[in-house]
From TrEMBL, chain A:
InterPro entries the record matches: CO_DH_flav_C, CO_DH_flav_C_dom_sf, Diverse_Substr_Oxidored, FAD-bd_PCMH, FAD-bd_PCMH-like_sf, FAD-bd_PCMH_sub1, FAD-bd_PCMH_sub2, Mopterin_DH_FAD-bd
Pfam family, one: FAD_binding_5
GO molecular function: FAD binding; oxidoreductase activity
Organism, scientific name: Dyadobacter flavalbus
Family annotation (SUPFAM superfamilies): CO dehydrogenase flavoprotein C-terminal domain-like (SSF55447), FAD-binding/transporter-associated domain-like (SSF56176)
Residue ranges annotated for the FAD-binding PCMH-type domain, each copy included: 1-221
Protein name listed in UniProt: Xanthine dehydrogenase family protein subunit M
Listed Gene3D superfamilies: 3.30.465.10, CO dehydrogenase flavoprotein, C-terminal domain (3.30.390.50), Uridine Diphospho-n-acetylenolpyruvylglucosamine Reductase, domain 2 (3.30.43.10)
Automatic annotation (TrEMBL), chain B:
The species this protein was found in: Dyadobacter flavalbus
Pfam families, per database record: Fer2 (PF00111), Fer2_2 (PF01799)
CDD domains: fer2
Transmembrane regions listed in the UniProt entry: none
UniProt keyword list: 2Fe-2S, Iron, Iron-sulfur, Metal-binding, Oxidoreductase
A GO MF term: oxidoreductase activity, acting on the aldehyde or oxo group of donors
PROSITE patterns: 2FE2S_FER_1, 2FE2S_FER_2, TAT
Domain 2Fe-2S ferredoxin-type stretches: 58-134
Positions in coiled-coil regions: none
Top-level taxonomic group: Bacteria
Name listed for the protein in its UniProt record: 2Fe-2S iron-sulfur cluster binding domain-containing protein
Amino acid sequence: MIQFQYVRTSTPKAAVDAVSKAQNARFIAGGTNLVDLMKRDIMKPEKLVDINNIPLKGIEQQGNKIVIGALALNSQVADNKLVQEKLPLLSQSLNAGASAQIRNMATVGGNMMQRTRCNYFYDTAMPCNKREPGSGCGALEGFNRMHAIFGTSEKCIAVHPSDMCIALVALDATVVTTGPKGERRIPFSEFHRLPGDNPEKDNNLMENELITAVEIPDNAFTRNVHYLKIRDRASYAFAVVSVAAALHIENNTIKDARLAMGGVSHKPWRLTGAEKALIGKPASEETFRNAANIAMEGAKTFKYNAFKLKLGPNTIVQALKNAAEPV
Amino acid sequence: MGDNHNPDQPENESFAESRRNFLKNSSLLTAIAVTPGVVAKAAENDLGEKIASAFEKVPLKMEINGVKQQLSVEPRVTLLDLLREQLNLTGTKKGCDYGQCGACTVHVNGQRVLSCLSLAVMHEGQKITTIEGLAKGDQLHPMQEAFIKHDGFQCGYCTPGQIMSAIACIREGHAENEADIREFMSGNICRCGAYPNIVDAITEVKNNGQKL
């Protein structure tokens, strides 16, 4: 790890000011991903601005939305009574991610800022346009079993690694930020981006902008929800494919639906076409299968990940079944 | 146990220490060589903020196993390396050093965290408990007793992390049944495969209902 300056700040403004003053500065909260990447010399910030003293840990209902501070820990959110009651899908997704120790360190904002776990991004001996723009993509012709099938580019086929973000994009969350130009709100589906020609950018945050909160509408998805994560071992592994499913069912008819997928794209992948195919239909396997087939339209596979064309829809169907009949 | 020399003062090297300091200094020189930008910025300062320039150690107060410590660390030192290298608390193990194995699990303000993925400077004013802080004199912690009784280890390398994690798992209310325990202990890898016995140890301590 290279040497760096270290600064503690206790207000969002001080943090933004501090990070703005240096060329290559980063905010640090839990550090679970950043410290890992710094140890491997994948990220080399010359200054770290510690934001842990900023009071942004609150989880509360504000009118018709639930507001979660950016520094609330993943474990605090997952175990929070309000979240468990009103946003059980979010709680489930958080508990599917990482380990208990990491969830005690990782924050909501930091979870959103996670970098991909693509092996070629992590291996500094290999080319990677995300780590070193212009160097090429090792995964494109490499071992790409874990890689994306939606929204890829010739520059990058990496996937976004978070579970929490899959639930948040399904639940129509909004990201609140503050930066040199003041506060703004970004719809969750527009926070992360597709790789296109510049995969070095994971998201649409502006320079020196700080995430301060996530707002989630107080919705009808309090009962018929399920986060299903398929991984190579039972726990503590990144998703091969994951699905966040939320249904509002009345008299066995689907009144409203939310569906998103992880492990398939550079950003949390919302399935609006499949949602439309669910609404107004009976909550049956046939309905779910039809929606799952619609969800997979436009998928493009690579040498080792064509299995996701089967695993993807099967995971969607199972997640919807589990949501329709929660245990 | 504490580190008595002041890291800000030039060291009065003993022969035994010299190799270690050579390694420290040479790695520092390497760091200077690869980060020229930092040198210029090291002069930057800001009133009202605690700034540590690139080559300064940061003063750090922590309470470790009930003992107040006044320390001085480079910002890049992890909590794990501080415990092991500076305070000689080598009970906390370095397994993967990348947050994948759980061997380095300690408690910070009563919560289990991975000390390898945490910078020491981020724990100003906090209370750290390591495996060395569990026993009261010769009286082992109930979880330590249970691990011995149920043979919850073979080689023992992951054990300190397993025990710290196990105590927290019960405190958090995530040890209600075997499935729960296995899920919430999944961040602690045991290559020897002592999992069934670890689950038995945790179950027994949970069922005894003692305050941990």
